[in-house]
Amino acid sequence: MKKILTYISALALSCGAMTSCDKWFDVEIRSIETEEDVFSSKDGILSVLANIYGRLPDDQGFNADVMNDWDESITDAYETREFLGSSHRRYWDYDLVREINLFIENLDKYSTQYLQPEDLAYFRAEGRFLRAYVYMQFAKNMGGVPLITRSFTFAEGNGSATYYQFPRNTEDSTYCFIIAECDSIKHDLDVRSGSNVVKNRASYGAALALKSRAALYAASIARYTPTRKDLVLRTDGWEASISWRDNFKLGGKDFSYNLKFAIWDNVTKVTKYMATTNTLPTNYATNYYEGMTLGELWGYTCNGLFQSNEEAQTYADYSKFAQNKIAWQKGDPKYEDLNGDGRIDNGSNRLEDHGDLSIIGNINPHYMFGVNLAANWNGIGLSVFLQGVMKRDWYPSPDSGYFWGKYARPFMWVLGIHNYTDDMYSEEKNNWDTAYWPRMTTYQSNSSYSWTKLLEIPNTRYKQNAAYLRVKNIQVDYTFPKALCQKIRLGGLKIYLSGENLFTFTPLHKYAPNFDPEALGYDTDFSSTAGDGYTYPVLKSVTLGVNITF
After folding, report:
1. Are 118 and 110 in contact (CB under 8 A)?
2. CA-closest candidate to residue 333, choices 358, 302, 300
3. Is the pLDDT confidence value at 192 over 80?
């Protein structure tokens, strides 16, 4: 009988829940906190940070019943191969990385007009410290990992999962990233000192401690890892920023504005390489030399197009570029014989004998910059965020169809930039002096079918300038006066129009209009100096919104 009563009671409770649950869907939402609401105050920012700090990994006491005060120096049965799936070895929280990236981005997007410069600098540095700390946990457990330093949306990938598949960075580049971040942010973390220090938060000392730990791991790997003990790298970087804030009266109303410009760069060099091959770095996975700068692009110097068949066939020995005794002709690229030996080649492909090859660029981005502008007058707000790269070279891969087209394969696309205009050599126009593209011959960029390879090896003529300036975000908004809001019984009313990635200015689009300079990719292990540019471009978006506070 007691059991029957229990079932009846449970059934009654279930029916009560079913009849009342609809009311939950009818509850009117009184207020919604937007990202701008959160990041417009210190309290809101601290609440986000509290969540991030609460999710940080703790290397102590993972399983209190098994290993108290555990750290990475302890070795027991749990550290054997069969137990690598335990909780302390499978830490892979890229959800947290995304939240930290969003935190940093939202500071620059929303907080510039609400916080004092020193507070904004501290919070930004704190976010970067937390991201570096998380990557440290990744690296010591799993080695090299993908270094994701910005947030992504589903719209960017246009439904394709491959867009979000990032290869791992090398282990040394992961530790170099952590060390560079600590060096860059340590002084901004130093602004809260003495009586202003906040315990259990990121600090100048914490940044130095994290840097030292990363350097210790990196040094241990360099010393004790057989595969790379022959190679020593050094990364030097810098960062500079300048900001200005002011306000004045305009039409009897307060006009406030702030402007910030930041620029940074880093260069990685090979300071010691014990191998003696001195093979040119055409394959960065295996080839280095002392003094080398990572990202070097070696190639030929091109001096226009041949003016006649006679010039082309008597210029120099070009057998390096032609198989089956195919001869150069009028309209083909003319490469300089830099060493004067009568041949156009790469010698023995060694540092001491590189033939006519020389360093013609660098594929890594340099002099990255960002510009933030915010202004407010009479309820009207304007914010602009620009970003870009001042220097980057790119050479398309041999099979990059949207650049080479039929120069790669005869069955590829007929590109608009390759039509028979003045930009492409044709025998009828005899435009060898004005044309950019050489005479149309297939397989020039792709020698996999044993034909010519005039364009396959990088050269100065078809090396592309991938520098760019992008308008990442523009937002115009209007906040209605409080008196008006009170009349219509609202706590606040704001309308805004926001655009993402609206404009991009880059010399790359002159000859590669289908490519996004921000999305160009290379193999992260530098096994190739070329890129195919097939990555889906960053999407444009326009948002019209209304923020209502009841």
Report:
1. no
2. 302
3. no
